[in-house]
Write a structure and sequence with these properties.
α2 packs across α4 and α3 packs across α4. The protein has one domain. The longest helix has 16 residues. With 90 residues, the protein is an all-alpha fold. Helix content is 58%, strand content 0%. The relative contact order is 0.20. The protein is globular, with a radius of gyration of 12 Å.
Amino acid sequence: MSYNGWKNYETWNTVLWILNYEGLYEQLTVKCRRIKNVEMRWDAGMAMLFCNDAFLDNATPDGVNLEKGSVVDWDEVANCFNEILDEDLQ
C-alpha cells in the first residue's frame, strides 16, 4: 500500500525526517556534494548507511526501524537523494 506518493509509510517517514530536519538536510547536501565530485550516484546501500548513521538506535525519532530487513524502500530513498544530487548544489 502506498503512502503520500511513496511506497509505504516507513519510506515516506524516513525521507520526511531527512529533508525537514535542518541538521540532517545539511548533512545530506554535504554528502551529495562529495558524491557529485567523484561522479557517483546514490544507491540503496549508501542511502541505508546514511540514514542509519543519521539517527540514533537505527530508527527515526518516531520509531521507524531503519535496520537491515526493514520495510523502508531504500531504492526509493536513493532516488530521492539523487534528485537532490542533480540539483544545483552550491
